């Protein structure tokens, strides 16, 4: 199935699944940082490769990306992307430090960010499993801090053999009082989409 | 004029137009240049081979198909194949997972495929700046064939 041929009903269903998954993830993140985290309505887009980085602040914007591969019957990619300043603010919150304390992201800070990615992914995929009865196995998280386009290129390479568009199911998280924002992107491989829709009765 | 080349895209032009592509990660920027005709070309490839692809309409996406198309476009602008030289950048491994699979070694495989295809086409590879774990933005100056490479925290370099 081609991403471009999704029907409105299929797109609604995917958004709904994303909504529940991201809702769980936002709750988990709130608990981790002990602060209210708001979640925006999930966006579903079929985006040409060249425009994916625009959804992350532009190709050359400096971001932190936590990347998890999703293996199993329905392979996919999960990427949690934050502007670098938000990543530092998030580290402060995770470690209970006053805002503005973290200036550099070293090994300890990297571990903390990877753990956030891990928990967001776990809660998100749990919801997705509940809806679809498909088991998703997440890899250990990996972290990169660099230009958005450079980070996303690795993810897009996993789906580039079959097309020129990525299906992005994204949710934006925003701190209620703290200045943090970040987005979680689910980028399924082509065959996985069919499987997920099939399990929802919408193939 | 500065001409932007997107991901899985290629363009050829003549001096004084420059070519640039931003945020190369595992992708490779392939720059070809004819110093006499002052014709430059830039391809931003994502994958090494088109052979296993189910969709190969976009030839700029693969190392093996992008280079011949770029050659044709440059020859149409007055370049002569025997005068062409190449410089390449990119092919990073942005993420490292323990027990990294082939999926993660994509940058390295891209670089290998580009080098091989250039050799098959008999285009000398003058310089390369590939590998590492960081992104690169590159700009080809078609007046002199110099390739500027910018990074986030590893400074700039000219090939």
From TrEMBL, chain A:
The keyword Transport does not apply. The keyword Nucleotidyltransferase does not apply. It holds the Pfam family CheC. Keywords: Chemotaxis, Hydrolase. SUPFAM superfamilies: CheC-like. Transmembrane segments: none annotated. Residues 9-44, 108-143 form the CheC-like protein domain. Coiled coil: none annotated. It comes from the Bacteria. InterPro entries: CheC (IPR007597), CheC-like_sf (IPR028976), CheZ_family_phosphatases (IPR050992). This is Chemotaxis protein CheC.
Automatic annotation (TrEMBL), chain B:
It is an enzyme of class 3 (hydrolase). It catalyses: L-glutaminyl-[protein] + H2O = L-glutamyl-[protein] + NH4(+). Keywords: Chemotaxis, Hydrolase. The keyword Cytoplasm does not apply. Gene3D superfamilies: 3.30.1330.200. Belongs to the CheD family. It comes from the Bacteria. Pfam families: CheD. Its EC number is 3.5.1.44. It comes from Heliobacterium chlorum. This is Probable chemoreceptor glutamine deamidase CheD. Probably deamidates glutamine residues to glutamate on methyl-accepting chemotaxis receptors (MCPs), playing an important role in chemotaxis.
């Amino acid at each position: 199935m081609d991403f471009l041929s999704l029907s409105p009903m299929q797109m609604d269903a995917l958004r709904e699944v994303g909504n529940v998954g991201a809702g769980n993830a936002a709750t988990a993140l709130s608990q981790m940082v002990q602060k209210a985290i708001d979640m925006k309505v999930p966006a579903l887009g079929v985006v040409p490769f060249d425009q994916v980085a625009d959804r992350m602040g532009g190709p050359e914007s400096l971001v932190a990306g936590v990347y998890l591969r999703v293996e199993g019957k329905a392979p996919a990619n999960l990427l949690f992307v934050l502007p670098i300043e938000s990543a530092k603010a998030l580290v402060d919150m995770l470690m209970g430090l006053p805002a503005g304390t973290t200036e550099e992201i070293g090994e300890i800070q990297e571990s903390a960010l990877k753990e956030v990615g891990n928990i967001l992914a776990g809660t998100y995929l749990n919801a997705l499993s509940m809806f679809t009865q498909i088991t998703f196995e997440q890899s250990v998280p990996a972290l990169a801090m660099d230009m958005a386009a450079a980070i996303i290129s690795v993810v897009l390479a996993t789906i580039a053999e079959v097309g020129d568009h990525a299906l992005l199911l994204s949710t934006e998280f925003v701190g209620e009082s703290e200045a943090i924002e970040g987005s979680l992107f689910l980028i399924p491989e082509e065959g996985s989409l069919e499987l997920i829709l099939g399990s929802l009765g919408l193939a | 004029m500065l001409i932007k080349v997107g991901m899985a895209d290629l363009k050829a032009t003549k001096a004084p137009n420059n070519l640039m592509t931003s945020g190369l990660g595992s992708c490779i920027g392939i720059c070809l240049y004819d110093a006499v005709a002052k014709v430059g070309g830039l391809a931003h490839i994502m994958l090494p081979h088109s052979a296993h692809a189910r969709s190969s309409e976009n030839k700029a996406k693969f190392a093996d198909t992008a280079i011949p198309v770029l050659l044709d476009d440059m020859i149409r602008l007055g370049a002569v194949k025997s005068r062409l030289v190449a410089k390449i950048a990119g092919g990073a491994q942005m993420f490292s997972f323990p027990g990294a699979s082939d999926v993660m070694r994509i940058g390295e495989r891209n670089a290998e495929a580009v080098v091989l295809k250039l050799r098959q086409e008999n285009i000398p590879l003058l310089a390369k700046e590939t590998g590492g774990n960081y992104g690169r933005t590159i700009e080809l100056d078609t007046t002199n064939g110099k390739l500027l490479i910018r990074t986030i925290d590893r400074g700039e370099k000219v090939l």
